[in-house]
Design a protein that fits this description.
Blueprint lengths: L1 E3 L2 E3 L1 E4 L29 H12 L2 H7 L5 H14 L5 H4 L8 H14 L5 H7 L10 H14 L2 H8 L9 H15 L6 H12 L5 H13 L9 H9 L4 H11 L5 H13 L3 H10 L5 H11 L5 H14 L5 H9 L4 H14 L5 H17 L3 H11 L8 H6 L5 H15 L4 H5 L3 H15 L4 H11 L14 H8 L7 H14 L30 E6 L2 E6 L6 H12 L10 E3 L3 E3 L19
Parallel strand pairs: 3-4
Antiparallel strand pairs: 1-2, 4-5, 6-7
Helix pairs in contact: 1-3, 2-3, 3-5, 5-7, 6-7, 7-9, 8-9, 9-11, 10-11, 10-12, 11-13, 12-13, 13-15, 14-15, 15-17, 16-17, 17-19, 18-19, 19-20, 19-21, 20-21, 21-23, 23-26, 25-26, 26-28, 27-28
């Protein structure tokens, strides 16, 4: 451990076969309070408020909303933003008139977090129309976003009709686009709202924050018809230097599905060196003519960056065709990187004609041989998933994977069985498949009896697939209930939930709600020295380079204290990033190396 000026650094040794750059876009609170408010982690009362948030002690927090100390009112409102309790709306509403701007903004944010329509009259009344272009921008931004979180079609019409905000009104434009975006995430959309977001996303003069939000709206909201906006989006994409905006615009652009758009994406791929944009283009090309894209994707299989190669493999897996299946098989035999080779094996096995049983069987033999020769558990896991593309491999998959030493391989074996069980081609291969379903069920029950939490969780998920009607083979629920009782909480809460869901499904009963969730079990460790350091950072050293994490103890003291304590204990040493999805997520630090490992305590989401 070393302290240097205002920064804290600690070394975590994390090994990973692949590591992706990524951007986190999540539900973030308003900007940290200005100098008018002082968040002081040495103040015992402020600590107490954060402890009350951690314990979700609403009654005590209600009293603090009326405190004469502004910092206490602010932190109490922020606590309710984390708790998200609809009953808190009436108590938070008076703070929308608080004399401190930061408290007003936090109250609006907290009210929005409830998602309650009862908040709408308060929000509309509180919007500061007299200072629309002035100092209360952060508050109005929060009001607009909260309106989207709590509103419906009427609020969408209102937001979509606003045309008075100027390009220099950065916070208002961010609030407006966030409001429309939040409504869309609740499946509330309109042609007018989409048109406004196209205009904002495509205009390089719009502030980058609002433009990014609008671009993500266009990329993520399903079933948008953007064909009429092809020309506008083309110009917007060409005038975009920000890679984050470009990535989102590429995904949005794909929804136009016009020949012009497909050609534009191919040209952009050829003219960019940014691997992140290339990954999104490869994904987007699935919406266009295969014949015009396959050469580009085939060349991408040999790209220098692993993420681009993975994107190319996914392209052929998801968008390949039967006539090119022999080509995929040949590519898998060429000198490709190992995981790319596995991806092409999987694409070949998926796209070979269902009538080519001999070819599929021999290709499965090649994959099994690669499995036997591999020493990389993640490659072996991928090979098992490749085998699942041919349903007749349902016998060999558990034989290969269930007894493997590495949890990731064992879990992948169950996931492969689940893939076969839920395959659209199940009936093509097995017909009614009465005996096959019983055989697969036996393997799933074997996984549940393994006491491996990862295998148990995936097997429980598979039991809930309605088309296979596994319930008809159950004499009773004893086996599932016995497995449930053996789980250790909160360490194995994910598996516990999946088993509860399976028991309800097989038993034909409604799922018990709310399910028991981990209670308060790990108080914030205020003795941690991290709270004495300004602007702390945590450095991870991996075999792919260095990652610097910026820590925000004033926003998330429990999470920050926890990761520091685990680092000091050496918990992260020699851990892997077990899951990496380009331009989406990187997950690491699991003790098992498969995502199903945990600790004997839980911390609150802050």
């Amino acid at each position: 451990m070393k302290a240097n000026h205002s920064n804290f650094s600690f070394v975590l040794r994390i090994l990973t076969p692949i590591l992706s750059s990524f951007v986190l876009h999540s539900c973030l609170p308003p900007e940290p309070p200005s100098q008018e408010l002082r968040i002081d982690l040495t103040d015992p009362i402020q600590r107490q408020i954060m402890d009350l948030q951690d314990r979700q002690d609403k009654d005590s927090l209600y009293l603090l909303l009326h405190s004469s100390v502004p910092e206490y009112r602010y932190l109490a409102a922020r606590a309710f933003a984390s708790i998200r309790n609809e009953e808190s709306v009436d108590s938070l509403a008076p703070l929308l008139k608080d004399p401190i701007p930061d408290i007003r903004a936090m109250s609006a944010y907290a009210i929005g977090q409830t998602g309650s329509s009862t908040a709408l009259p308060y929000l509309k009344d509180a919007f500061n129309r007299e200072d629309i272009h002035g100092a209360d921008g952060q508050f109005n931004r929060a009001i607009l976003e909260a309106t989207g979180k709590c509103g419906g079609a009427e609020e969408l019409a209102l937001l979509s009709s606003i045309n008075t905000y100027e390009l220099q009104d950065t916070l208002l434009l961010e609030g407006l686009t966030l409001g429309i975006y939040r409504l869309a995430l609740k499946s509330v959309t309109s042609a007018e709202g989409t048109k406004k977001m196209v205009v904002y996303a495509s205009n390089p003069e719009v502030p980058s924050g609002a433009r990014l939000i609008a671009a993500h709206y266009l990329a993520r909201v399903p079933r948008l018809d953007l064909a009429t906006y092809t020309s506008v989006l083309t110009e917007g994409l060409k005038q975009t230097a920000n890679p984050d905006i470009a990535m989102a615009l590429v995904s949005a652009f794909a929804k136009t599905k016009t020949a012009e758009a497909g050609q534009t994406l191919v040209e952009l791929y050829q003219n960019t060196d940014d691997y992140r944009i290339k990954v999104n283009i490869l994904s987007a090309l699935g919406n266009f003519d295969y014949a015009t894209s396959k050469e580009l994707a085939a060349a991408a299989l040999r790209d220098d960056h692993w993420a681009v190669r993975e994107g190319a493999g996914s392209y052929f897996l998801n968008h390949g065709n039967t006539s090119d299946a022999p080509l995929y098989r040949q590519l898998a035999r060429d000198s490709l990187a190992s995981m790319t080779r596995v991806a092409m094996y999987r694409a070949a096995l998926r796209h070979l004609p269902d009538t080519s049983m001999t070819a599929k069987s021999y290709l499965s033999y090649e994959i099994r041989r690669s499995f036997d020769q591999s020493t990389d558990p993640y490659e072996k896991a991928a090979l098992l998933m490749a085998l699942s593309e041919f349903p007749w491999n349902y016998r060999s998959i558990p034989q290969l994977g269930f007894a493997d030493q590495h949890p990731a391989v064992r879990v992948a074996a169950v996931q492969a069985l689940q893939n076969i069980s839920e395959s659209e081609k199940f009936g093509t291969y097995f017909g009614a498949g009465f005996s096959i379903r019983r055989n697969i069920l036996e393997y799933l029950l074997q996984a549940i009896q393994s006491e491996d939490p990862g295998m148990m969780a995936v097997a429980a998920q598979a039991l809930c697939f309605p088309d296979r009607n596994y319930a008809q083979f159950f004499p009773d629920l004893t086996l599932l209930k016995q497995a449930l009782e053996k789980l250790e909480l909160p360490r194995e809460i994910e598996t516990w939930y999946e088993l509860k869901r399976a028991i309800a499904f097989i038993g034909g009963e409604p799922l018990e709600e709310p399910l028991n969730k981990p209670g308060f079990s790990h108080p914030i460790d205020w003795t941690n020295t991290i709270f004495d350091i300004e602007n702390p950072e945590l450095t991870l050293f991996t075999n792919k380079g260095k990652i610097v994490l910026h820590l925000f103890p004033e926003l998330a003291p429990g999470s920050v204290a926890n990761i520091i304590q685990l680092a000091i204990q050496g918990f992260y040493d020699n851990k892997v990033f077990h899951r990496t999805v380009p331009n989406f997520v990187v997950q690491g630090g699991c003790p098992r190396g498969d995502g199903y490992g945990s600790l004997d305590y839980a911390i609150r989401s802050e």
